[in-house]
Every structure is written in structure tokens, then in C-alpha cells.
Amino acid sequence: MRITSLMLSILVSAATVGVVHAADVTGAGSSFAAPVFAKWADAYKAKSGVGLNYQSIGSGAGIKQISEKTVDFGASDKPLSPQDLEAKGLTQFPAIMGGVVPVLNIKGIAAGQIKLTGDVLANIYLGKIKQWNDPALVALNPSLKDIDENITVVRRADGSGTTFIFTNYLSKVSADWKTKVGSDTTVAWPEGVAGKGNAGVASYVQRINGSIGYVEYAYAKQNKLSYTQLQNRDGAYVLPDDTTFQAAAAYADWAKAPAFGEVLTNEPGKNSWPITGATFVLLQKKADKPAQSKEVFKYFDWSFKNGGALAAQLDYVPMPANVVKLIQASWKTEVKDAATGKAVW
PBP domain: from which residue to which, for each copy (predicted)? Predict the structure, then answer.
């Protein structure tokens, strides 16, 4: 199913009942997690009658909207620090894991044919490598020696958790990138054209010959984009899929991560995909609308228990059962009715 169809299904659900029902859940943020949130929402709506009105507008906007209390939950691919959570009165938990992949558009090059190292990828985005037949690329991919074509770099225009995951990885594998650009949801890009959301980046890459971008894996598959192999921390070249995302996710130690703030890029393991990440759900700790906060928990409780197979269909990695127990324990202590002080869950 295409992304547009997934998002349309949410709109159709809302349209069916006219104005969004009072019990429906509202959320905003991560476009990385939007496909799986939509798939879960369709199934949950059929089971419970409660819909999800989710705006896929990027992690930065999701953090802003939950901070301003205009949605029931925000979603960000960049975990907030304990200090930021405290300052904003928020709590967070991880909801799903998946992979960010480099995608390209070179005539005659199919998905998985091109090999990249982290350093070469960083140098492309730094503007040091400007053509596809650059010696550094040809050394990895002899088939590129006759591709005398300029490289067009495509990046995100909006505050993006996908950008955080991508630039966090580049900062770990390239000292030059770490010093000159760094990692965040928005950075001072040395060059490139900008697309809004994963869909915007995918659209540019589809239309520009010689382009390279980065998107969540589901967007690459559903838009039939050519993704690359990538050398991981152990030196092995791996392809992106649910098994390599899961291999990287296996190294996460959620129990020891303050406020669940685990970042999964450049993990060890010969089968690990190096640009793996998670999406974090953000809620107000003092709930002005406790009934709505409880509906958020019901939606994710159902999704954790029943949504694993649906997530796997889109090549996401569900949270392990032992981690779900940690998450649900946090629900009982972290979010309380602002008026009574009683736990919402």
C-alpha cells in the first residue's frame, strides 16, 4: 500500500464520522513512523471504534505541538534529554524501530547494487564528492566508472527526526561531518535541494536523475526507489530490511537508558544496519485531559499487543516484550491527572 493511501485511510476514517469524534486520539510529528501508526490506526479503529487523527509533519513540529498541548501526543525520532523533558513537562517512551536508507536515482542502477561507506556518504553530503564517477565511488563500485553525471544531494526541509538519525550516524563515522555540521533535527547543510517530509525527499529523488537522498525504508520500498548497501561498524556491507534493523536493535539497552533515550545508529554486529532508529511518543506528564491521555495509552497498548505482524509487513521492528513491560510500568508513574494527581493508566 502506498503512503498516500495509508494517510488517506485516516482521513477517510475521520470523514466517515464527520467532525473527529471526541474520543478519537490526536497526534503529530514523526513522518518516519507515520506508515506504521496509520496501519495500526486502521486496525484499532475497526476493533475499538476509536480513530487516530495523526499529522505527519516532522519530529520538530511534533515536539512543538505536544509542548503547546494542541495534540494528545507528539512523536519524535530524536529522544529528548531528561533535562528537556523536565523543562517541557513531558515524558517519552519508544514505540517502534526501523531504518533510514540512502536512496538514489541513476539510470540502470537497481536497488541494492551500489555500495557506500559512511565516510563516502558523508563526503557526498559535504560536497567533497560531486560526480558519480568520482574515484572514491568507483573504487567501491566499478560499474560507476562510465556514469559521468553530477550528484544532486536531497535533504529534508523541515525539522525532522529522520534527519537526526541520518546526521547522528554521519557524525559517528566522519570526524569532518561531526566538526562541520553535527547532528540534530535541523542542521546547516553544506548543499542540496530540500524536500518536506519523507514523501518530499522521495519525490525529489524520483524526479532528479543523478540524485541521492535519505528516507525511512517503507518510503523507499513503496516508491520503488533504489536504496544502497552500506558498510557497517564491523566492516560488512549489508542491505536494509527488517532482519538488519532487528540485528542493530538487539544491542539497545533500554533499561539503562535515561528516559528511554537510546540512539541505535552505528551499532556493532556483522548483520546490523548502521542507520537504525526509533520513534518516541511524547505526552504531557500533567494531563489536562486525562481521558484523552488514557485513550493514547489504550491505542499503544493495543498496538504493542496486536500490531507486531502489521509492523513487520512494513519492515519496522516492534518493541520487544520485556521493553513493553518497562514502558507500561512508566505509564503508571509518569502521567497523572492534572486536577487530582491520580495516575491516568
Answer: 24-302
